[in-house]
């Protein structure tokens, strides 16, 4: 099969080449990939640390080529959305049936491929905060893949959404169109306290966002794009009548829980037009080097999609 292979002799660290077809385990479906979306973490760090010839990739959408031998999962011919630790940047992918969702017939599989990491992370991070109806939720890094989905899902759940982005003038209208009630340049500029935070940035912004938490509030640390340490000043963790019982929680999407219901629900929402996948770059996978460069250099706000084949 063809795949994007790690090749550290190229500028992007990738080349389109041939490799062996994956051999599914009994609990895995063999999926023919139609599209894959890129995530900052896998292109910024994954390519650098992988060995030559490896096939990376977390997100992919396609069609089941061969159903799982143990009888689990969808039948051959079913359009699906998939997530895994690697293998998405290839024509064929072996996927655990607990890590794929069913896609409505006729859906744009490129749009669907944006969901696994970004959409599922946003959904599960918001759930960790708790019921959102009538609550105030701050989303940092709101123009990224997770951020865009978090803004939309929080608004659908009945929250007052505060979106934080480094360029409110350039992205404010777009974020408000997605559902943000307020758009600020930094967490500390939010108007009042918030009940929950989905933090996609880390570093000093996480510290500043935690300072905006009201009593019983929860900050979910999803992204770490800055690469900077989180240093809390003395007194930041004090509690008083209005600021007690505040939490910072870590996040890991592939924690072993069944992702099928969430992926299937999100795919239906994107297919119906209820959620905007936020594609800011799309092209054939032979142009992967362009997409990788744009992501690493911070020129993309949203998702990059590669059409396979």
Automatic annotation (TrEMBL):
Alphabetical list of Pfam families matching this protein: ADH_N, ADH_zinc_N_2
PANTHER family: DEHYDROGENASE, ZINC-CONTAINING, PUTATIVE (AFU_ORTHOLOGUE AFUA_5G10220)-RELATED, QUINONE OXIDOREDUCTASE PIG3-RELATED
Keyword Oxidoreductase included in the entry's annotation: yes
One MF term in the entry's GO annotations: NADPH binding
Signal peptide: none
Stated name of the protein: NADPH:quinone reductase-like Zn-dependent oxidoreductase
Keyword NADP: yes
UniProt xrefs under Gene3D superfamilies: Medium-chain alcohol dehydrogenases, catalytic domain, NAD(P)-binding Rossmann-like Domain
SUPFAM superfamilies tied to this protein: GroES-like, NAD(P)-binding Rossmann-fold domains
Coiled-coil portions: none
Residue ranges occupied by any Enoyl reductase (ER) domain in the UniProt entry: 9-306
InterPro entries assigned to the protein according to its UniProt record, in alphabetical order: ADH-like_N, ER, GroES-like_sf, NAD(P)-bd_dom_sf
Gene Ontology CC, one term: cytosol
Keyword field: NADP, Oxidoreductase
């Amino acid at each position: 099969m063809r795949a994007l292979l790690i090749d550290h002799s190229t500028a992007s660290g990738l080349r389109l080449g041939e490799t062996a077809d994956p051999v599914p385990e009994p609990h895995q479906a063999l999926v023919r990939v139609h599209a894959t979306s890129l995530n900052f973490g896998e292109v910024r760090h994954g390519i650098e640390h992988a060995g030559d010839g490896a096939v990376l990739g977390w997100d992919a959408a396609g069609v089941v080529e061969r159903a799982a031998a143990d009888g689990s999962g969808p039948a051959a011919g079913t359009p699906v959305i998939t997530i895994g630790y690697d293998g998405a940047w290839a024509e064929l992918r072996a996927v655990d049936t607990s890590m794929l969702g069913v896609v409505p017939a006729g859906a744009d599989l490129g749009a669907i491929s944006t969901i696994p990491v970004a959409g599922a992370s946003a959904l599960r991070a918001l759930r960790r905060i708790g019921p959102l109806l009538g609550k105030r939720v701050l989303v940092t890094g709101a123009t990224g893949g997770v951020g865009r989905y978090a803004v939309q899902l929080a608004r659908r759940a009945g929250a007052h959404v505060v979106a934080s982005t480094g360029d409110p003038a350039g992205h404010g209208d777009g974020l408000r169109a997605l559902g943000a009630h307020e758009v600020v340049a930094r967490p500390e500029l939010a108007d009042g306290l918030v009940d929950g935070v989905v933090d996609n940035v880390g570093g000093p912004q996480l510290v500043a966002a935690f300072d905006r938490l009201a009593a019983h509030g929860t900050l979910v640390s999803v992204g770490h794009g800055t690469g900077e340490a989180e240093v809390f000043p003395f007194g930041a963790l004090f509690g008083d009548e209005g600021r007690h019982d505040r939490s910072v929680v870590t996040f890991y999407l592939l924690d072993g829980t069944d992702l099928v219901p969430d992926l299937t629900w999100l795919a239906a929402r994107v297919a119906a037009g209820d959620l905007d996948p936020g594609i800011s770059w799309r092209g054939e996978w032979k142009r992967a080097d362009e997409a990788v460069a744009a992501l690493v250099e911070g020129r993309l706000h949203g998702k990059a999609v590669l059409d396979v084949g």
